[in-house]
Each structure stands twice: as structure tokens, then as C-alpha cells.
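Q: what sequence does this backbone want?
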């Protein structure tokens, strides 16, 4: 390029090109080849990279919280034969990254001992071989400009699908109970299905325990000061807030927060690629698992 620029200013371009190419240690044919290539459309791997980049940008536009692993799986699903490291390299070179909110840490106060007669039947084994064998549940709060919105969610351990949820403007035990009743109506779990939670007062109340007993379910709660005992739900709520709430900003109203929670759950169940499930969505995982070989 240096030769080319200086040659334009010289009285005899051919002599100038020869001198400068000699100084820089390049051949005249190499210079002219470079000059010709700069005016051509990209070919070979360069053209493939441009095409892949366009696909990556389109995926990222729809799923802004996807990083290289999930975008790589999405490209494979679209029949692009590309390696994960190549995808990561293209994203890094073009400033494309998962749009996730900043994780906010807050001190947690350990609840007092509640219902020592109820034990932990999960012991941090979050896997289930069949549907409706193990459920996880917890509550979270979503800040809006109108105040807090409280949400209860229940997941099936088999395919990590959200099977029910409920919201309320106030923190009461009825929010978790409504989500529990909805899960029972939609799934009709078999005898012995475990529902696991933390030691929140909602999950140790008489109404909660009676409802579980009436449907022949086993109640399981984690230990004190052990958030990892309910890591599946902790992780789900973190994903929801980091992918939906924090990047898009605080909801203006509780109604907006409910709508965003509903949309995220629908997208999560049907489309979001889950790393625990081999990068397929919960619904697809359950469908594929039900097909007999």
C-alpha cells in the first residue's frame, strides 16, 4: 500500500514502484496481485466468513442474550458446517456478545428453622429420567416503577420446562399456591412426585403441605444457608433477569412485567437453547425423548 501511495505522487510511477518494492522486499508481480485483489469481491474463506457473520448478526438480533455456544448450535441447526471456535472468533472480531445484565448481588438473611420434619429428598441431584418425577419451585420479585411484582414459577426437572407460574402485587403464600394448583391441573403428577423448594415460609405453610399430601406428592426443602440446594430455580431466575429484565430496562408497570415474564417463558420453553439439554429447547427435548427408537 505504501508503494502504491508513493507511486501516485512520483513523476515516473513505474520507476517509483520498482524502487519502493525493492526497499520493502516485495516483487512487482506481488504488488500488482495485491492491487488486483483489493478490488475484487471476497472469495473462499473470506466470503464464507462474511456470510456466517450475516447469519450470526441475524440470530443475535432476535436472541440478543445468545453467546457463542448457543449461536453455534443455531447455525448447526440451519445446516451450516462451522466450528464453535470460528463462531466465537467472528463474534469477538465484530464486537458481538451476549447482551446480559449485570448480576446484582444482595445480602441474604437466613430464615429461621422451619419444619425440621421435612427433609431434602434431592441432595443437589437435579436430574430426572422421566417427566413429572421432580419439580422445582421458588419465588422472585421484579422491580417496576409501580412497585414490586412477585412471581412464583414451577419447573420440571426432566426437561427444565416451566409448567406453571403465577404473579401478585403483594407477597403472600397464595402466589405459590396458585402456581402449584395450576401445575397439578395441567400435569396430574403420579404418586411420589417430588416438589423441591427452599425454606421460604410459603413452602412450609400448612396450605402448601396439605395440597401436596392431597395429591400424593413428596415435599422437599433445602438446608439453611444453602442456595445451591435449589440451584435450578436460582439459575432460571438469574437467566430471566439477565436476559429479559436488565438489558431492556425496568418495566414501567406491573402489567408490563407480567407480559415480559409470559413472553420470556414462552420463548424459553419453545425456542431458547438450553445447555443442560444438549442445546435444544425444553419442548423439543421432551418431544424427541418421547419418540421410540
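A:
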Amino acid at each position: 500500500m505504501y508503494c502504491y501511495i508513493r507511486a501516485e505522487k512520483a513523476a515516473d510511477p513505474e520507476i517509483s514502484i520498482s524502487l519502493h518494492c525493492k526497499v520493502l522486499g516485495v516483487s512487482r508481480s506481488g504488488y500488482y496481485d495485491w492491487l488486483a485483489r483489493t478490488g475484487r469481491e471476497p472469495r473462499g474463506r473470506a466470503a464464507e466468513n462474511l456470510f456466517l457473520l450475516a447469519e450470526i448478526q441475524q440470530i443475535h438480533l432476535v436472541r440478543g442474550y445468545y453467546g457463542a455456544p448457543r449461536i453455534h448450535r443455531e447455525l448447526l441447526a440451519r445446516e451450516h458446517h462451522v466450528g464453535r471456535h470460528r463462531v466465537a472468533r467472528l463474534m469477538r472480531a465484530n464486537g458481538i456478545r451476549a447482551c446480559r445484565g449485570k448480576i446484582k448481588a444482595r445480602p441474604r438473611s437466613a430464615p429461621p428453622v422451619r419444619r425440621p420434619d421435612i427433609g431434602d429428598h434431592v441432595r443437589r441431584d437435579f436430574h430426572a429420567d422421566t417427566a413429572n418425577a421432580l419439580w422445582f419451585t421458588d419465588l422472585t420479585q421484579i422491580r417496576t416503577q409501580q412497585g414490586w411484582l412477585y412471581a412464583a414459577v414451577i419447573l420440571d426437572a426432566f426437561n427444565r420446562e416451566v409448567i406453571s407460574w403465577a404473579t401478585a402485587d403483594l407477597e403472600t403464600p397464595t402466589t405459590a399456591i396458585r402456581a402449584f394448583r395450576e401445575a397439578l391441573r395441567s400435569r396430574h403428577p403420579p404418586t411420589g412426585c417430588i416438589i423441591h423448594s427452599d425454606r421460604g415460609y410459603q413452602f412450609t405453610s400448612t396450605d402448601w403441605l396439605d395440597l401436596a399430601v392431597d395429591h400424593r406428592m413428596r415435599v422437599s426443602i433445602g438446608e439453611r444457608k444453602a442456595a445451591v440446594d435449589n440451584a435450578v430455580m436460582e439459575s432460571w431466575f438469574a437467566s430471566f433477569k439477565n436476559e429479559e429484565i436488565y438489558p431492556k430496562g425496568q418495566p414501567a408497570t406491573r402489567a408490563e412485567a407480567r407480559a415480559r415474564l409470559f413472553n420470556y417463558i414462552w420463548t424459553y420453553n419453545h425456542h431458547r437453547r438450553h445447555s443442560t439439554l444438549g442445546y435444544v429447547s425444553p419442548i423439543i427435548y421432551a418431544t424427541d425423548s418421547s419418540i421410540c427408537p
